[in-house]
Amino acid sequence: MYPYNHKRGQTIQTDATGIAVDRGFIANLSWTALEMAAADTDGIFDGIAAADATAEPAGTTVTATPASDEFVAQPPCARNLTVTVAATTAGHVKAAAIVVTGKNLNGDTITESFTPTVDTPATLVGAKAFKTITSVAVPAQDGDSVTVDVGFGQLVGLPYKLTKKRVLVTLNDGVVDTAPTLTISASALESNTVDFNGSMDGSVMDMSIIV
C-alpha cells in the first residue's frame, strides 16, 4: 500500500446496480506552532536598496540572495509572499516588476512578479506558496530612496494539486476552526493554498481533506 498513489482514479460500487462512485482518501495535514507564525512583511528580506535609474546605467537590477546582508530567514513553511516597496519620495517608485525566484513544496523552481503602481509605495500580496526563496530581483527605480522588503503572508501551501475543495475539518489547537478558504489548481502545486479563518498566531493547525 505504501506509497499509495491516490490519483489512480479508482471507483467503488454503491448499493444501486450499475452506479459506481469515485474512491476518496482522507489526508490529515498538520502544521506546527513555528510553521504557523504570524505574517511578517520583512521576515525574509529587510531593506533591499534599489538602484537609482537616474544615476546608474540603464537596466541596472539589484539581486538579493540568502547570502545578502538583507536576508533574514526563509519562510516558516510554504507560504505566500508579500513585497513592500517603500520610499521617502513617492515619485521614486517605478512601475517595474520585482521578480522573486524560489522553490515550491516539490522543490521545483517557481517565480512570481510584483509590480507596484508608479509613484505609489505599497505592500503587494502574492498568491503562490514558496517553500524557500533563492533570489529577489529589484529593477532600478526613478530615484535613490526606494527600498524593498520581502515577507510572508497568511496563505499556507498544500502538498496536493487539487481539482475539488473537499475539506472535512480544520482544527486550531484542537478546536474546530470554521470556514478555511482554499484556492486550488490541478496543474500548479504552488497555487494550492489554504487561508485559515482569522490571523495565524502560532497555533497548531490540522486539516483533513479528501483527495
Q: What does this entry look like structurally?
A:
The chain is mainly β and 211 residues long. The protein has two domains: 67 residues, no CATH class; 115 residues, Sandwich (Jelly Rolls). 0% of the residues lie in helices and 43% in strands. It is built from no helices and 16 strands. Strands 4, 6, 9, 11, 14 and 15 form a six-stranded antiparallel sheet that branches. The model has no long low-confidence stretch (mean pLDDT 93).
Quick gist of this model?
This protein is mostly beta strands and 211 residues long. The protein contains no helices and 16 strands.
Task: Outline the secondary-structure elements.
Elements: E1 11-13, E2 20-22, E3 26-31, E4 40-49, E5 61-64, E6 79-87, E7 98-103, E8 109-114, E9 122-125, E10 132-139, E11 146-157, E12 167-172, E13 175-176, E14 181-183, E15 193-195, E16 205-210
Antiparallel strand pairs: 1-2, 3-16, 4-11, 5-10, 6-9, 6-11, 7-8, 7-10, 11-15, 12-13, 12-16, 14-15
Keywords for this structure?
211 residues; mainly beta; Jelly Rolls; 2 domains; six-stranded antiparallel beta sheet; four-stranded antiparallel beta sheet; elongated
